[in-house]
């Protein structure tokens, strides 16, 4: 199985997405070209990819340099489905800056370090989740599987070497299933795996955002395992070829400044940011906002936090489990100097930002149904009603259920309703949550994003029971 993983990963590293240009156009005299590798549909990288590109922040920053120096800059954007082909192109010195998940970052650093011109450095984070909720495992809606152990002996689709695959390996190991022999992992690109799940060729799909939420939203999948159960931080970050950064430090500085611009925009206008990303990627806006909205699974924060770096170090054994990779010195791979400079240039305190751990954007405001202020991020929900220019906050799950019921009674169309999982805190769709009637609890009805989570609560609270979504809506008080 290990050899199969190694062969699959090697194949992934040489494949590129159809339609992407592989060769950079030769720059004219006095012109500098920078090639950016990004993953448009991996929406926790949007501040270094899709949103950044849509808003033109990077080009604007480079344009400011041109005004001062007369040096012209050309930006080439190359879109991929996973991090592996970005690494392959960086190895070939054809991509200068790329963004990818934590496990692919490890592979990137390991693969490139032997070549001084290709050698990369991790210079910023795009988004992270402190518990690991960026990666999930889904099954078909009618699947008999309700816990991860139910997958023993089954076929699971995953992109070998991806963050989703890394979480699967960790989760199976924790559940007592050998990830090499206990399941059959099919190495597939996310969209191929989604089709395989729908057709029944595989029994589960392990992927990173936004695929689990997308398939649930489309009623094609049910969440089986939330990566937050592992309670291990997961993140996506930005790598740069050290040789390129040495030759063009002003380009890296402009990129990091632009990433901060995109991050600020997302924090200030999360709904508009989600809509822009949806327009550019073809993903439903409701799915993008699930993850990237206030209180979503993604905390958009560029800083290289010690907790994230420690998690990266703990991921190293994963490399050994899937192939023969060179040892990577994480402390040398992570370089925060350029980002510290970007912060200083904006008169921002980098150390204070590193120490911050709360999601920078949370659901807030006045709950119009329960007529109370929304103050607890662990309980706060959000309602998106068609025709409204803003979303409606809900102080707790009970208030959210009442708001949905009221909107339905008025004939208003609910575009989406979001609620945090009562156990793990992961934001999920209210109509795809598992609702538990818990007499005596603060809100009477509690949402869980998986059957397993609901059953853990019921086991600890006699009298609690699962109810369907319509029962929860009818019973909310």
TrEMBL record:
Q: Name one Pfam family in it.
A: NMT1
Q: Does the keyword Magnesium apply?
A: no
Q: Is Iron-sulfur set as a keyword in this record?
A: no
Keywords from the named record: Signal
- Record's signal peptide: 1-22
Segments forming domain SsuA/THI5-like: 118-273
> Could you tell me what this protein is called?
ABC transporter substrate-binding protein
């Amino acid at each position: 199985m290990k050899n199969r993983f190694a062969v699959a990963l090697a194949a992934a590293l040489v494949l590129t997405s159809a339609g992407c240009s592989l060769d950079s156009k030769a720059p004219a005299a006095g012109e500098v070209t920078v090639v950016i590798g990004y993953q448009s549909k991996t929406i926790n990288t949007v501040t270094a990819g899709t949103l950044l590109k849509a808003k033109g922040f990077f080009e604007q920053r480079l344009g400011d340099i041109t005004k001062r120096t007369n040096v012209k800059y050309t930006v080439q954007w190359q879109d991929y489905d996973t991090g592996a082909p970005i690494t392959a192109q960086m190895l070939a010195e054809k991509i200068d800056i790329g963004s990818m998940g934590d496990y692919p970052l490890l592979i990137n650093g390991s693969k490139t370090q032997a070549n001084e011109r290709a050698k990369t450095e991790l210079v910023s984070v795009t988004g992270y989740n402190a518990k690991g909720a960026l990666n999930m495992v889904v099954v078909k809606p009618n699947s008999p599987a309700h816990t991860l152990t139910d997958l023993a002996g089954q076929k699971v689709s995953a992109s070998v070497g991806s963050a989703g695959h890394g979480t699967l390996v960790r989760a199976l190991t924790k559940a007592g299933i050998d990830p090499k022999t206990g399941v059959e992992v099919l190495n597939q690109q996310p969209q191929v795996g989604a089709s395989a799940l729908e057709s029944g060729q595989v029994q589960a799909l392990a992927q990173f955002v936004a695929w689990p939420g997308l398939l649930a939203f489309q009623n094609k999948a049910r969440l089986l395992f939330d990566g937050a159960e592992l309670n291990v931080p997961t993140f996506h970050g930005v790598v740069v070829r050290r040789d390129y950064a040495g030759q063009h430090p002003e380009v890296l500085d402009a990129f990091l400044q632009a990433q901060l611009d995109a991050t600020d925009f997302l924090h200030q206008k999360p709904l508009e940011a989600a809509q822009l990303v949806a327009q550019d990627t073809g993903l439903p806006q409701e799915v993008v906002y699930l993850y990237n909205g206030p209180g979503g699974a993604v905390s958009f924060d560029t800083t290289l936090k010690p907790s994230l770096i420690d998690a990266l170090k703990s991921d190293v054994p994963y490399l050994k489990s899937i192939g023969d990779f060179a040892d990577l010195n994480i402390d040398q791979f992570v370089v925060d100097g350029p980002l510290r400079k970007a912060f200083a240039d904006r008169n921002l305190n980098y150390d204070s930002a590193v120490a911050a751990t709360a999601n920078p954007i949370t659901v807030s405001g006045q709950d119009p149904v329960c007529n109370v202020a929304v103050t607890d991020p662990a309980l706060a929900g959000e309602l998106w009603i068609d025709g409204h220019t803003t979303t409606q906050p809900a102080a707790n799950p009970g208030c959210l259920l009442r708001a949905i019921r009221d909107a339905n009674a008025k004939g208003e169309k609910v575009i989406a309703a979001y609620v945090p999982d009562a156990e793990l805190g992961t934001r999920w769709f209210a109509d795809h949550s598992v609702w538990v009637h818990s007499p005596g609890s603060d809100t009477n009805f509690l949402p869980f994003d998986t059957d397993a989570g609901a059953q853990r609560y019921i086991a600890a609270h006699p009298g609690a029971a699962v109810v369907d979504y319509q029962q929860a809506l009818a019973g909310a008080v």
